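Late entry, written up from scratch paper. The run itself happened at the end of the previous shift, but nothing got recorded in the book at the time, so transcribing now.
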Amino acid sequence: MHAWLDDLNIPYKTNEPLAPLTWYKVGGAAQVLAEPSSVQQLTALASQCHTADVPTRVLGLGANLLVADQGVDGVVVRLSDPAFRQVRIEGTTVVAGGGFELAKLVLTTARAGLAGLECLAGIPASVGGAIRMNAGGVFGDIGQAVKRVMVADATGQVYYRDRDDLEFSYRRTNIVARYILSVQFDLSPDDPKALIRRVKEIFLYKKNTQPLREGSAGCAFKNPDQPDPQGRRLSAGQWIDKASLKNFAIGGARVSDRHANFIITDRGCTAGDVITLINHVQKTVADRFGVALEREVVEWP
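Output as recorded:
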């Protein structure tokens, strides 16, 4: 594998620890971590990996990711080069690279007087990762502002997905292509000062209700559709709280006492601790209430 990686002239590292690149700060290493510096390099890498039957994964900001302690085989691709971290504004149209940080995009568009993404304040993600998961919350989702997405599939073929071809639902999209290269947003003109105030309000709300300063990967579970006996639709955090699991710990992993849908990693925590705790939370809520909690955090492998 290393020979043809050298031939492609793509920067890469072998046996590279992934924990520092994730918000959980746990887990093993990537067999290869590659960081292409252009779309051409990325498509050549994807094509070669496909031909050689080498598994590939894409690492964004690592905010919704749990890497197994044994690490991952194959090639982990990170769109960290400036080629994938640019943003362009033309009128009310904004085009952002898949590796651009969502938080920076929210501020950039708000300062430019463009409304539509301020609802995403406080959500850690790359633009590509946010599209993949249709990132959002009580204030709105990213999908509502998307006009066009440039993608590349596992073979390295590049194509576009337009708005009338896209479907966004709760933490899901119908994009199956491996790589999200750039996203075009259709926004609306608004007062920059009002938008900045809105961004600050949403961020402060999350800061006061979520353990943002502790090691976590955001919400561990998706909110279930199943109502309680009174017909109310409770959030995943409310079900976990009802199960008296706040501050419950296994090894170095514990359920946050501030927001029960956040799992915190303390000193000495392993990915195995987090997985065991996630399984325990799911089983406890299912056994007590008959509610199946679906994981929101992505696990590798």
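Helices lie at 2-8, 39-51, 102-111, 127-132, 192-209, 236-242, 271-289.
(Scratch paper discarded after transcription.)
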